UniProtKB/TrEMBL annotation:
Main location: mitochondrion
Domain of life of the organism encoding this protein: Eukaryota
Molecular function per GO: proton transmembrane transporter activity
GO cellular component: mitochondrial membrane; proton-transporting ATP synthase complex
Family of this protein: Belongs to the ATPase g subunit family.
Organism, as annotated: Pycnococcus provasolii
Single GO biological process annotation from the record: proton motive force-driven ATP synthesis
Name of the molecule in the record: Uncharacterized protein
UniProt entry keywords in alphabetical sequence: ATP synthesis, CF(0), Hydrogen ion transport, Ion transport, Membrane, Mitochondrion, Transport
InterPro entries noted in UniProt: ATP_synth_F0_gsu_mt
Amino acid sequence: MAAARLSTFASKVTTTLAPARSKVVESYSKMMADNAQYVVTDAAVEDKLLKQWFYTKMSKIGPTMKAADAEAQLWRKSWDNRNSATVGELSRMALFGAEVVAWFAVGEYVGRGFKPAPL
């Protein structure tokens, strides 16, 4: 009985999704036909492109690390000078912290499917 119900359900899903599937396949085929000049079919060229992409990404690590280090130095400096911060700077920091917490809370709420937190 359960197998028959499952088979019926599967056939309903298949017939329901068939138009969407054909539309996606048609859209994909059209996109690939329109952009055929950008497709690399030679394995040697493909390997070269992969290496170029990899080493391009690797070359960006140095500047990214330098920028992250500079940002960390600014944070350390502001933390060391926190006792001499003005009310405006402190309120801006508090608002930033509240915004980060709010975005986290909204993300948790959306991730649960808009359901309240379990107790």
